[in-house]
Amino acid sequence: MAAHAQEHTSHTKLIWKVFIILSVITIVEVILGIIKPDSLHLTTILGTSPLNIIFLVLTLVKAYYITWFFMHMADETKSLRRSVVWTAVFLVIYLATLLLIEGSYLNDVLGPLVKWNY
Amino acid sequence: MDATIATKSSEQTWGGGNNKPLGASYGKMMMWFFILSDALTFSGFLGAYGLMRFKFIDSWPIADEVFTHFPFMHGVHAPMYYVALMTFILIFSSVTMVLAVDAGHQLKKGKVTFYMFLTIIGGIIFLGSQAWEWKNFINGSYGALQLNDGKIIQFVDASGHQVALESFAKSSHSERTQHTKSKGLWFVEEAALPAYSVNEVIAGFEAHPEITIRTEKLNTETKTKTIVPREQAMSYLNEAKAVVVGANLKVNEYGNTLFADFFFFITGFHGFHVLSGVVINIIIFFNVIIGTYEKRKSYEMVEKVGLYWHFVDLVWVFVFTFFYLV
Question: Residue A77 and residue B2: Cβ atoms within 8 Å?
Answer without folding.
Answer: yes
